Amino acid sequence: MVRNDSLGPLHLEGFDAVQPGHWTLENDGHSVLLQVGSGMAVSGGGLPDVYHTIQLHFHWGGLATNGSEHTVDGRRYPMEMHIVNMKSIHPNESAALDDPTGFAVLGFFIDVVYADNVHFGHISQKLSSVAYRGQTTKVKPFPLLSLLPKHNMSQYYRYSGSLTTPPCSHAVVWTLYEVPILISWSQLAQFTSQIFSTEEDAEQVTPLQNNFRHVHPTFSRTVSASRDAGLLRAAAGRPIRSNLLHIIVLGSFIFKL
């Protein structure tokens, strides 16, 4: 992993505002997605263009297993949230899939504490309305920044990769934030035990669990740490034994220090 001092905070346009209209929460059988319409964009922080925010979604494990798609030093977090942004020059998602930098995805670990996250409640309180595949419900827009670790947004890791769901196109500039979002055990349980991958009238309903992609080789790609990312500083302060291999797993790829 290489420190890149030019990687400062991203510019999150409209993330601190309440957007007009309404958003749509959907269970597509693979995840829970929040379609956020227009009005927000991501740029800067080494991104090659302006990217329009289109949706966010979640990955999680099971009743007793963690389910983030990235891991750090072998640790897998309980959940992970992805904010998906599409390069502004593309007319649709199909066109963006043919561009190696067609999407910029912001990844956030989700960890668990005992108190509810009030802001996360904007989503978790609506989950019962999308328990089954194909169900949708309206969500009143809220400042998306309220969900994020807003005091640590300059601490992240960057690499070029792929979508983690089919067609798994190599079309993503990944930004993985170091500091997690904190939710409660009960909010986590709403995902792991109350969301189903089948339709409501299915003969046998199936819980939606472990919807994360497994790790894949690096294929010689580089992971860059932003100028404020703390993991490298922490590693530099520890004695490294010759028989100890430090591994960072980012998304679908494993990186060795």
Automatic annotation (TrEMBL):
Enzyme class: lyase
Domain Alpha-carbonic anhydrase: 1-227
InterPro entries in the record: CA_dom, CA_dom_sf, Carbonic_anhydrase_a-class, Carbonic_anhydrase_a-class_CS
Gene3D superfamilies assigned: Alpha carbonic anhydrase (3.10.200.10)
Cofactor(s) named in the record: Zn(2+)
Keyword entries, A-Z: Lyase, Metal-binding, Zinc
GO molecular function, one term: carbonate dehydratase activity
EC number: 4.2.1.1
Keyword Iron-sulfur (UniProt): no
Function according to Swiss-Prot or TrEMBL: Reversible hydration of carbon dioxide.
Name of the protein this chain belongs to: Carbonic anhydrase
Organism: Poecilia latipinna
